[in-house]
């Protein structure tokens, strides 16, 4: 509806030459497309939030059944949207959403494999949050689509993490690596040939932590023995 209304507005309100205003129809078209993308991505984010599991869902089996049905309907709709508008899939994933939904979206949306096309760009963002999201997304896609392309992107993730390991300060290193430990395990399961590279990365991480501990700077023991203990 928004798309048709904005198109009608452009036709009803032809461009007038005034200083300080838009100078061409192409600029108006670009702004229209940007506005539509913002509105549609906001709507998709709301739908994704509806897929989140609540404490009530966990305590009441009937609510879990309802949540599964809601997730199926939403994932089916998102699949159609991503197929018809791949740019929206890219926008939604660059905006990000709760990482606990990645198993839901990757398993429930058949078109999620198109994310492999833009993950390198997402991984190159300066934000650690986006980089963590990208690695986690790749790990789930690797399990779902154990394809050569997915393996190539997974290897890129490992190489990127190796580079970041050598340049990040200790506090940011913890912020990056603690959330991705499980992701690395999933990548190893999907692509055993990457096990050696990932093991080397984790050993390098361990050596850095050990050297920092001698200087009085190390990861909190609780953090180390928490989620990533099995790694």
Give start-end ranges of low-pLDDT stretches: 221-231
Radius of gyration using CA atoms only: 22 Å
Strand residue percentage:
under 5%
The biggest beta sheet is recorded as: none
Gap between N and C termini:
50 Å
Structural class category: mainly alpha
Which range best describes the helical content: under 10%, 10-25%, 25-40%, 40-55%, 55-70% or over 70%? over 70%
Number of domains: 2
Specify the number of helices.
12
Beta strand count:
0
* General shape: globular
* Mean of residue pLDDT values: 86
Order of helices and strands: HHHHHHHHHHHH
Overall description:
The chain contains 12 helices and no strands. By secondary structure, it is mainly alpha-helical. The protein has 2 domains: 1-111, no CATH class; 118-231, no CATH class. Helix 1 packs antiparallel against helix 2, helix 4 (61-84) crosses helix 5 and helix 9 runs parallel beside helix 11 (195-213). The longest helix is centred in the first third of the chain and has 25 residues, at 25-49. The termini are far apart. This is Integrator complex subunit 2. Pfam families: INTS2 (PF14750). It comes from Vettius lafrenaye.
Topology:
Blueprint: H1 2-12, H2 25-49, H3 55-59, H4 61-84, H5 86-95, H6 102-108, H7 119-123, H8 128-144, H9 148-167, H10 170-190, H11 195-213, H12 221-224
Helix pairs in contact: 1-2, 4-5, 6-8, 8-9, 8-10, 9-10, 9-11
How would you summarize this macromolecular structure in one to three sentences?
This protein is an all-alpha fold and 231 residues long.
Attribute tags:
mainly alpha; 2 domains; 0% strand
